[in-house]
Amino acid sequence: MPVDERTTGLPSLRERRRAAATQEIVDAAERHLTEQGPAALSLRAVARALGMTVQALYHYFPSRDALVTALVTKAYDDLADAVQAAVDTPSDDPDLPRLVVAAEGYRRWAIANPERFQLLYGTPLRDYAAPADGPTTQATRRMSSIFEREMFNGFTAEQLAAICTPELSPELRSYFEQLPHYGHGHLPSPATALLMSAWGHLHGLVALEVFGHTSFLGDHQAELFRMAMRNLLADIHRRIP
User: Who contacts 87 (Cβ-Cβ below 8 Å, separation ≥6)?
Assistant: First the structure.
């Protein structure tokens, strides 16, 4: 007697075929993204690359926005995987802080995937808006939680509340207090401010390199990035009593 997949909890044949087709479309879209850049992304071009009609592709992605959302979510997840893998892999330098290791994992992925990095952090695509609190938001939260953990692991809530930062306005403190927290736990406002500032520093250096603005440094970029991340971490720790 054949096994009824509905009773085993396994995906049905139809579901597996749909998942395979969806993955094939995403893969084709990523190839098109790499070759043409985010601004040229279109359902018609992706369908043409797969030998499909646009109408057939609509059965899997009802709009360009739906496909972009899938690509952005996957890019964030792949980036987070790369950062986590960097942290989990034994370093050649056992004294290298884990936050620096995470930052270098972030940098390596961005350099290896410039078009996908541009999709995430470059010029926003015209007329695209990510769904509120949707899969792209969940993916960014996962990324944030990794850096939050490596930055503040080992410190108590009392220490984080006493971080030395310029006085925050009541309005900014109130805004930070209302933000959802999904990594280290509920971060006090000074810690959130420090995390955002550090993130801007780290990401800004990577973006400058990916978009070619520091190419004059040549092969020295990796060394300077490591030095900057060490200095950043030292400054963070000086601010935490």
Answer: 98, 101, 102, 105, 146, 150
